[in-house]
Specification:
FAD/NAD(P)-binding domain; D-Amino Acid Oxidase, Chain A, domain 2; 10-stranded mixed beta sheet; 8-stranded mixed beta sheet; binds flavin-adenine dinucleotide
Length: about 550
């Protein structure tokens, strides 16, 4: 569907195609509302494709006293694990306990007991050093007292957004990417009655009317509705990740540990075929219209923490596959450090407009339901979906043997595509039902997404429909010929357009998903003295921290 073909009259228009907008879209479509979602770039282009991909209560929020958020999030995690198999999967976490640093065994024991209490199951366990060593043989053993094992979950964040959007569409909603809301339309009494919208690339404009607008634009939310509390505004906080191959960082469980300089909690997270290291948390001063990227200082900050935790491993940046950054939409009163800011979501309301922002990926369903309750007076004739209705439609109840796939890839395919997984397998050539080397993505997912999932650019396909842009060497460019061959029939691009798309993709990848140029110049093909460069930077930073210039207080 194109903007030009749209009806001009809607019940509900949602601005923003991240997880928050997608969650509301899916629920509103189930209420049989005429609902339109628009996204200025690609679905999940904002923060919702750049998270740590955890579905978690957030142990550290307990430490900060955000009990309500932890409770909500743990409850949502349990529900998503039950109702979104293959998409939300269990993840084991380790927390090393050292004699000379960190919160100490008994504080962690108390926190994890509370965590389990909320989930109503006892899942954590302490292992003394000799046993813990077998769970995580690469961790620094010096002064190691032991460690805990506990349970959380993880997700492919962009695929969660895509699944919500696909389910909303299958329930009758309409969702358009590359469609920007330029401004709100008002009636004479000041109520919001619609939006002026435009195709983000052609500039073609249309005015659309509706009974209610939901502003789910994350960090951009105050553009449409300034905070009603003049003391409290959105504070863009950047978080960056590094992506390693499992050969360089051999972890099949996540590890939560503290940065040696500022004591902030960091993670090592095995995710699909790669291992993530993150994240930083600092004020993002750059233009929000430009994609964020990890800076040299952030990379060094993360590598420094790895060096302390894993003294025997070679995690040099030569083995780092990619890096990315996302911006947290956080409501702030100011005066506290980024990591101390609350991650609670908020709702603001004015006639004809509901704004929802803040929060976390994990609680998207809860956020959507809070919006629905605010929407009720606008749609009294449409009953709200029940709180016990499933988060997502059930996946096909078909054994993997019937579709010719091993059990795990079939479960994951069902998680990513829901009921459409069967269609995907049906459309696939048998040789495409194999994983792209070094990933858990099947070749068949590429043509399926190209055909059915509103792919406008190559980066939509490689960074968000599938994630090989983040997971594969050089953003998957070594596979480009086969990708072209598989997707050409569905994208309708001629040779010139393919060239343009490849060049656009390379530019995006190198600018926002590769290591920052200051470090990349030390990778193979450039001077090989990268380790000494890291050492140099490290020493410089340690020195400057001693001198107190705050470089490490990221
Ligand atoms: C580094 C990092 C790690 C995180 N890790 C986790 C985690 O592990 N677990 C967790 O639960 N949460 C995590 N979070 C938080 C979580 O990712 C966010 O809370 C969530 O993704 C926000 O979703 P959103 O839909 O509100 O915003 P976004 O995903 O940013 O979506 C808003 C969308 O609105 C669009 N938009 C803006 N203006 C317009 C306009 N005028 N017209 C049309 N569209 C517009 C944008 O392009 C954007 O796509 C993390 C966040 C960061 C930054």
């Amino acid at each position: 569907m194109q903007l030009a073909q749209l009806s001009t009259s809607w019940d509900l228009i949602i601005i923003g195609g991240g997880v928050t907008g997608a969650g509301v879209f899916r629920e509103a479509a189930r209420m049989k509302l005429q609902v339109l979602l628009i996204e200025q770039r690609d679905f999940a282009w904002g923060t919702s494709s750049r998270s740590s991909k955890l579905i978690h209560g957030g142990l550290r929020y307990l430490r900060e006293g955000q009990l309500l958020l932890t409770r909500e999030a743990v409850q949502e995690r349990e529900r998503l694990l039950r109702e979104a198999p293959g998409l939300v999967e269990p993840l084991e976490f380790l927390v090393p306990v050292y004699k000379d640093r960190g919160p100490g065994k008994w504080i962690l024991e108390a926190g994890l007991s509370l965590y389990d209490l909320i989930a109503a199951k006892r899942q954590h366990r302490f292992y003394p050093a000799e046993e813990f060593f077998h769970l995580a043989p690469h961790l620094d053993q010096k002064l190691l007292e032991g460690g805990f094992l506990f349970h959380d979950a993880q997700v492919d964040d962009a695929r969660l957004v895509l699944r919500l959007i696909q389910e909303g569409i299958s329930s009758g909603g309409v969702a358009l990417n590359y469609t920007v809301a330029d401004k709100l339309l008002h009636s004479a009494d000041g109520s919001v009655i619609g939006i002026r919208t435009a195709d983000s690339e052609t500039g073609y404009r249309r005015d659309l009317n509706c009974r209610l607008v939901v502003n789910a634009t994350g960090i951009w939310a105050e553009r449409f509705q300034p905070s009603p509390d003049p003391q409290r505004h959105l504070r863009p906080l950047r978080g960056s990740h590094l992506v390693y191959s499992p050969r360089s960082l051999p972890f099949n469980r996540a590890v939560s540990f503290l940065h040696p300089d500022d004591g902030r909690a960091l993670f090592i997270i095995p995710w699909e075929s790669v291992v993530l290291v993150g994240t930083t948390d600092l004020d993002h001063q750059q233009d929000l219209a430009v994609e964020p990227h990890a800076t040299e200082e952030e990379v060094i900050y993360l590598v420094k923490a790895l060096a302390k935790l894993l003294p025997a491993l070679d995690f040099s940046l030569q083995n780092c596959r990619s890096a990315w950054a996302g911006i947290r939409p956080v409501l702030s009163k100011g005066g506290v450090s980024p990591s101390a800011e609350s991650r609670q979501h908020i709702l603001w309301e004015q006639k004809g407009l509901v704004t929802v922002t803040g929060g976390k990926l994990t609680i998207f369903r809860k956020m959507a339901r809070d919006v629905l309750k605010k929407m009720k007076p606008y749609f009294p004739e449409n009953p709200l979906p029940g709180d016990n209705d499933p988060v997502l439609f059930p996946i096909p109840d078909i054994p993997s043997t019937d579709v010719g796939l091993p059990e795990k890839p079939w479960r994951i395919l069902c998680g990513r595509y829901g009921s459409r997984a069967l269609e995907l397998v049906g459309e696939a050539r048998p040789e495409s039902l194999m994983p792209i080397p070094g990933t858990r993505t099947l070749w068949a997912e590429l043509p399926f997404a190209a055909r059915h999932e509103q792919v406008r650019h190559l980066d939509d396909l490689l960074l968000r429909r599938v994630r090989i842009g983040m997971q594969s060497l050089r953003g998957g460019m070594p596979h480009i010929k086969r990708i072209q061959k598989l997707c050409r029939p569905y994208l309708g691009w001629d040779g010139t357009r393919w060239k343009q798309e490849i060049s656009r993709y390379k530019q995006i990848w190198e600018s926002y998903y590769a290591l920052p140029p200051g470090l990349a110049k030390h990778l193979p093909g450039h001077k090989p003295d990268m380790i000494s460069r890291i050492r140099q930077l490290w020493e410089a930073m340690t020195h400057s921290t001693r001198g107190g210039n705050g470089l490490l207080s990221l």
